Amino acid sequence: MASNGNPTVNRLALIGIPMAIFVLGLKTLAWWLTGSVALLSDALESTVNVVAAFVAWGAIRYASRPADATHPFGHHKAEYVSAVIEGVLIVVAALLILQEAIPKLWAPKVLEQPALGLGVNFLAGVVNVVWATILIRAGRQHRSPALTADGHHIMADVVTSAGVLVGLILVVLTGYAILDPVMAILVAIHIVFQGWKIIMNSVNGLMDHAIESEEEAAIKQAIAVNADGSLGVHDLKTRRAGQAIFVEFHLVVPARMAVGDAHDICDRLEAAIEAVHQGAQVAIHVEPETEMAHGIKVKVEKAKA
């Protein structure tokens, strides 16, 4: 049975669906009013936003499921799959834009009702700026790859829309209709670049990429302050999977230390690490000082007061 997961992340992912549909409607209206292939390219990218919003919502719900017999470490990586799919969809959108824009280079079309169409597209851009900012901040705060990827994609859409608006204003001012398909092609190139970045960032997550150096430093500090009674740690390893962080290391204790005392140290360390990274999943291997280390032994020094 699925758990509720992070309610803020789930709610934002769900709200993202009607938001994407609303923006798509505005951009489609702008294209219909003007007949601009550049605005059509902008609308096509927003079509991807709608699909991506559904995929992100589904992935976040699936990723929030608790661990089970077949997925003992949880379902967190589903968010990375969502982000990869979004990146692929972005590239597909770029190909569709090129298919529409390239033929127009030889037969550019004069814009119809440009002022009204550009005004509608500008409104869509403002909505996207606000929404993308909310998603990126929430994605970083709650460590949600799906929300972060969605936010960056929408922010890239904002850049695209701004470029389209500037290009079409130049079309109106200069009368050079060919600038319309040229701008659409530039939009497609920009979209491919953004899609590639999203795919590569998501692949890093699927490959058990270590957490950020600042986050790891905070964990080391928590260990240093709360490892009283032990002789040090070694083989500290971390990885991120969606909203979850996994931490493991070997804890060296005196050979004659009682099991209960070693367990108390582990409990203290786990609580300290979880205080630094809420929800972190910690695995500690305890070994006596007489045991040969399984890796390079690194004693964690206490921070000076």
UniProtKB/TrEMBL annotation:
It is found in: Cell membrane. The keyword Methyltransferase does not apply. Gene3D superfamilies: Cation efflux protein transmembrane domain (1.20.1510.10), Cation efflux protein, cytoplasmic domain (3.30.70.1350). It is a multi-pass membrane protein. Residues 15-207 form the Cation efflux protein transmembrane domain. Signal peptide: none annotated. Residues 212-289 form the Cation efflux protein cytoplasmic domain. The chain crosses the membrane at residues 12-33, 39-60, 80-98, 118-138, 158-176, 182-199. GO terms for molecular function: cadmium ion transmembrane transporter activity; ferrous iron transmembrane transporter activity; zinc efflux antiporter activity. Its main location: membrane. It holds the Pfam family Cation_efflux. Keywords: Cell membrane, Membrane, Transmembrane, Transmembrane helix, Transport. GO terms for cellular component: plasma membrane. Belongs to the cation diffusion facilitator (CDF) transporter (TC 2.A.4) family. This is Protein p34.
